[in-house]
Amino acid sequence: MDITGGDREGDNKWKSGIALLKGQIYEALDNRMIAITCFKDALKYDVFCYEAFYSLTQHQMLTRNEEEAIIGSLEFENQCTKDETKFVRFLYESQLKKYDKPGDITVPIEFSNILYENVDFMTTLAERHYYNCEYQQCFRITSQVLTRDLYHTQCLPIHLSCLMELKKTNALFDLAHKLVDLYPESSLSWFAVGCYYLLINKTDAARRFLSKATTLDNVLAPAWLLY
């Protein structure tokens, strides 16, 4: 019985998990260069390590060319079947620098039924609409996502930003109040409060709550941008 392949796969997943954890620690310590190296290592050992890819792309650690280079360097053929390679590559490529005036996503037909019902992929679509200033389309999608999962951490910042762009003051107040009641220790709750006060032009209060959000999560990029 040959168990070498299985042992190697398990060993790589363990190494990937350790590299991911180290990356998260270094990122929390604001040592982004070492964190980047650790996240890249996590992906090298396990191409399915979405958490590492998410950190690299969503925390603005890389340029678009660097992001594309990472996808090009991943050894899909050694870790995935052909269908898995196509699926994972598509998901990763859909995450690339959406604020560079992104175009429409063409979803492979064999994945459409799965992806259009997936809240993470719906959030990716919403984010692309947001960066194209298509706020109504963005709001429609983020509202659907939050109906299913009120505390979808990737969707919430986009939805809150969209509420600001559309000047939906009452909706922003209600959501911020609900989030603070439900999740008082969450950075996103206080980010929501900061967004509300900024929308009603109470800058000092907005900065105070945005500062609280960044204290709770020092890599919450939307809060830093508004602060």
From TrEMBL:
GO cellular component, one term: cytoplasm
Highest taxon in the source lineage: Eukaryota
UniProt keyword Cell cycle present: yes
GO biological process, one term: positive regulation of mitotic metaphase/anaphase transition
Keyword list, A-Z: Cell cycle, Cell division, Mitosis, Repeat, TPR repeat, Ubl conjugation pathway
Name of the protein in its database record: Uncharacterized protein
